[in-house]
């Protein structure tokens, strides 16, 4: 199998292209990779309907933010035809106070169906870092 015939390889490429567009940020470009009924859940259970909403949320939290991909894995579910894709790495960027960061861990999970992302869940350390910056963390990072 090659990228054209292996659904896991194709799904990984779709997810990475979506993430690249999301980081520009280019919500319109990112939208090309998601289904009409796309569902996205951010850390804390925040629900969004698409890349425009997540870009707006990120703009409130970060001055700018990007992802350094460490690994993208995929598993094909033969029973449903879905491909479950997991992308992990580090967020890097700048908080609104001018402080930079580069070791903010993240893990995103995706479901790709028929060549489009239908859902994603996003987890990262941002909330913990912000709690620590505010002196509210229960333990040191």
TrEMBL record:
SUPFAM superfamilies, per the entry: NTF2-like (SSF54427)
Protein name stated in the entry: Nuclear transport factor 2 family protein
Entry superkingdom: Bacteria
């Amino acid at each position: 199998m090659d990228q054209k015939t292996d659904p896991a390889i194709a799904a990984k490429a779709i997810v990475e292209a979506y993430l690249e567009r999301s980081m520009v940020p280019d919500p319109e470009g990112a939208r090309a990779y998601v289904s009409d009924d796309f569902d996205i859940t951010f850390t804390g259970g925040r629900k969004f309907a698409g890349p425009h909403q997540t870009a707006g949320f990120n703009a409130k939290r970060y001055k700018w933010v990007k992802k350094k991909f460490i690994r993208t894995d995929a598993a094909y579910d033969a029973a449903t035809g879905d491909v479950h894709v997991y992308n992990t790495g580090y967020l890097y960027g700048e908080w609104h106070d001018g402080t930079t960061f580069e070791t903010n861990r993240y893990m995103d999970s995706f479901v790709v169906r028929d060549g489009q992302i239908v859902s994603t869940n996003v987890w990262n350390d941002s909330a913990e870092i912000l709690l620590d910056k505010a002196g509210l963390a229960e333990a040191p990072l």
